[in-house]
């Protein structure tokens, strides 16, 4: 009986930890100007999961920046989805590949929006 009770308590604690992690997340309906890049994170103290759907009419590129080096993760066509885990200190880059059309992306990410850096890299901002 004690073993079953301990198992129940362990499951309850694990559930609370998962709920806290899920609650600490953000969402953005993101618009990226032509040939611009949106940067998310870079200064986070824990890994962050970034996922999304390209809801616009132009392809986007998902990249990771660490130590000043950009690494391509995926090219996402209109209607496509992406998901990637960014490690501590990595920056998520969402780049609009069109030089003339604004991109639109629905993005979900772990971490509190108030504690993550968010900016654009292009001259348009």
Write up this protein:
The structure is a single chain. This protein has 1 helix and 9 strands, in the order αβββββββββ. The chain has 125 residues and is of the alpha+beta class. The strands form 2 sheets. It has a 5-stranded antiparallel β-sheet, with no helix packed on it. A hairpin with a 2-residue loop joins strand 4 (60-66) and strand 5 (69-76). The longest helix is centred in the N-terminal third of the chain and has 22 residues, at 2-23. It is globular. It starts with a helix and ends in a 5-residue tail after the last strand.
Keywords:
alpha+beta; 1 helix; disordered N terminus; four-stranded antiparallel beta sheet; 125 residues
Number of helical regions: 1
Distance between the termini: 63 Å
Q: Name the helix and strand elements from N-terminus to C-terminus, one letter apiece.
A: HEEEEEEEEE
The profile of the biggest β sheet is: 5 strands, antiparallel
Low-confidence stretches: 1-23
Structural class: alpha+beta
Average pLDDT rating: 82
Strand order of the largest sheet: 5-4-7-2-9
Overall 3D shape: globular
Strand tally: 9
What fraction, in percent, of the residue positions are helical? 10-25%
Rg, rounded, reads 18 Å
Strand content: over 45%
């Amino acid at each position: 009986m004690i073993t079953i009770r301990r198992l129940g308590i362990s499951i309850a604690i694990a559930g609370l930890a998962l709920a806290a992690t899920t609650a600490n997340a953000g969402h953005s309906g993101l618009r990226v100007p032509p040939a611009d890049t949106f940067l998310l994170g870079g200064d986070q103290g824990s890994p962050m999961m970034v996922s999304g759907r390209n809801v616009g009419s132009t392809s986007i590129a998902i990249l990771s920046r660490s130590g000043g080096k950009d690494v391509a993760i995926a090219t996402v066509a209109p209607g496509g989805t992406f998901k990637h885990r960014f490690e501590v200190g990595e920056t998520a880059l969402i780049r609009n590949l069109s030089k003339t059309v604004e991109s639109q992306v629905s993005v979900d990410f772990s971490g509190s929006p108030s504690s993550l850096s968010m900016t654009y890299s292009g001259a348009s901002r």
